[in-house]
Amino acid sequence: MINENKKIELAQWLLDPDGQKALPKNLSLLEHRLKEEGLFEIYQDIELPLAPILDEMREIGVKVDLGYLEKLGKELGKELDGLVKEIYKLAGGEFNINSPKQLSGVLFAKLEIGSEGILKRKTGAFATDVETLTVLKDRHPIIKPILSYREIFKVKSTYVDPLRELADKNGRVHTTYVQTGTATGRLSSRDPNLQNIPIVGELGKKIRRAFAAGKGYSLAAFDYSQIELRVLATVSNDPTMIQAFKDDLDIHKLTASKVYNAPLEKVTSEMRSAAKTLNFGVSYGMGPQAFAKTSGLNVADAKKFIDEYYSDFAAVKKWQQDTIAAARKNGHVANLNGRKRWLPNINWPGRRYAAEAERAAINMPIQGLAADIIKIAMIRVAATLKKKKWSGEEARMLLTIHDELIFEIKDDILKEATPLIRSEMENAYKLAVPLRVDSAVGDNWAVI
DNA sequence: CGCATACGCGCC
DNA sequence: AAACGGCGCGTTTGCG
Q1: Nucleotide nearest to A190 (CA to C1')
Q2: Could you say which nucleotides of strand B lie within 7 A of any protein CB atom?
Q3: What confidence tens digit (pLDDT) does each residue in A68-122 have?
Q4: Distance (Å, rounded) from C-alpha A270 to C-alpha A71?
Q5: Cα–Cα dist A133/A142, whole Å
Q6: Which one, of A320, A319, A258, lies nearest residue A287 by Cα?
Q7: Helix boundaries (H) for A92-226
Q8: Which of residues 374-433 of A touch strand B (CB under 7 A)?
């Protein structure tokens, strides 16, 4: 079921998720070290039981509609052909649009589009990323077709073509979940990565539409609502945030009301949106610069809002400061389960690497506990499916995407299975606030 | 030719 | 120059 080498790999990863240290290769030595570090429980109760579940998910795979993908690929190919012709015409010649270096040359040297204020890359070429190109949109007619080309080429080359390539003869795709690939405790997914399938816009929908339930089955998605903020509320013990989740309030709206000093009923959608970015960014250690960029505020105002946020949620501020202080002292941080991340740069003499390590220090306990929670949920759900004798046939766990689980469930048990899965997820871990799971059912991934 | 790097970008 | 945490991957480019 799980061999010794796999156990060794898991133990070494738990002891050193960033791969910085020389570690024993002997399992009993490693297990002894796990006990010394307080890591044996997550090894025994989370990582070991999870491994065979991930293997089974790979074996089952997720069905993709190959006929549909072929048609979509052809459509996108035609659109690309048209865009390439248009771009060459506007550029006055052919070049490799996929080469940022060549593109930079065409835009800023050949076409002489003004480059004042445009960032330079370390190679000396001007940046050509979406953000830069968007600024240039009104300066030259070539920009819009380039942006369209970029978007479509990305989707075709990263998703449509590889999914067709990697599907088996039954049209199922078998991603590998990597259990030892991250520094925080999250899983990653590769060959193909099914944790970064597009979701935004029409094109996102078109890709997700390709992931379909088998005949007689439906896809069911279950996602944790704001799991990271609930973890933050718990670890920081912030009374305002805890009460908000206990009362099932709209947390972004509440934050907006606090930082704008406005009553709840006066919160506009713009205010809520800025507050959402703030809530989101705080667990990453976002500064005024980054907040200004993503919110459209100027840096001074952005700083005011961040300061206001921290005075409204003072316990969050304190927890972050305490966590950084502890990291400096110990050289590592740990989440509530004892999962650790070592931060060798936390005491770096300059700010360059120290600041980076500080942000990692305040994020890992959040991201890493959320990761533990969904792993525990997967173990519980797998046990429930087994007990109901549904595993492998009636109900299959297919995908895990950080705060979301996706299943393929036979239609005749859907009504019974859905509340069971939700309940296992919501009761997987006891936080200071309830865990909430939203769910949706459909024929394909675009509609759930 | 394979491999590493730079750049860019998809997701949570 | 960058300035926000965690990933995987496609293409280009330069190097051995």
Answers
A1: C8
A2: 6-12
A3: 999 999 999 999 999 999 999 999 999 999 999 999 999 999 999 999 999 999 9
A4: 39
A5: 10
A6: A320
A7: 100-104, 130-136, 143-155, 161-166, 201-208
A8: 401-404
